[in-house]
Design brief:
The mean pLDDT is about 85. The chain is of the alpha+beta class. The chain has five helices and eight strands; from the N terminus they run H-H-E-E-E-E-E-E-E-E-H-H-H.
């Protein structure tokens, strides 16, 4: 049954229901009929809206909504000034779509970007755990040729060494532990332990051999480890 036939049936049902309401005398029966009347009127309204939408699609196929999917933005660059941290997203032809298609939301410690319907796709970026808090009310976006510029307003003029706390933690783990009062040989031993634990069987055999030879030299009074 197509929409036109469904609408005709609903209109006929409503007409008959109205006739029954006029003839009914008992209040309870009238209330039941009125409830059914409201339900049918609502269903009829929905069907008519669907019919109008169908007519528009048939008249202009280009007006039909296009199916889109979302891709994650993984490449971006950033720098900073005294007042702002600036994030650059390179997206070809982004300046050609309506500015309202570029949605940017800020919190004190994060930001999200959704670029809708660009080249048949949505583009999404979310950055959590910014290194320092930002002023979300004074942060903004700027759309340039093939680029979206995200301006994150700093709460203080402090310099950012990293963009996020996670990046800072990751980089600091890679740094050697420098202690002016530590024995230099301790640092060497720690480095060898790290290499040994992360190395393959061949690396472990090489380190074991070097260690054995160094111990033998030590017992003979020669210099320690001579690789």
């Amino acid at each position: 049954m197509d929409l036109t036939e469904q609408i005709n049936q609903l209109e006929a049902d409503l007409q008959e229901l109205g006739s029954l309401l006029e003839k009914s005398e008992r209040k309870r029966v009238q209330e039941v009929l009125k409830q059914e009347q409201k339900r049918l009127e609502k269903e009829l309204s929905v069907k008519k809206q669907q019919q109008e939408q169908q007519a528009r699609r048939e008249a202009d196929p280009a007006a039909a909504p296009k199916a889109t999917y979302t891709v994650k933005i993984t490449n971006y660059a950033w720098d900073q000034s005294e007042k702002f941290v600036k994030i650059y997203l390179t997206l070809k032809d982004v300046h050609k779509i309506p500015s309202e298609n570029v949605e940017v939301n800020f919190t004190d410690g994060s930001l999200s970007v959704l670029v809708k319907d660009l080249d048949g796709k949505n583009h999404n970026l979310v950055i959590f755990n910014l290194l320092h808090p930002i002023n979300q009310n004074e942060s903004c976006k700027k759309i340039k040729r093939d680029m979206v510029l995200i301006m994150c307003k700093k709460q203080t003029s402090k310099n950012w060494d990293y963009l996020t706390k996670v990046e800072k933690q990751s980089k600091e783990k890679e740094k050697p532990n420098l202690d002016d009062n530590a024995d230099p040989s301790d640092g060497l031993m720690n480095m060898l332990k790290k290499i040994y634990s992360e190395g393959d069987d061949e690396m472990k055999r090489t380190i074991n051999k070097a260690w054995s030879e160094s111990q033998e030299k030590k017992l003979r009074g020669e210099d320690m480890m001579d690789f």
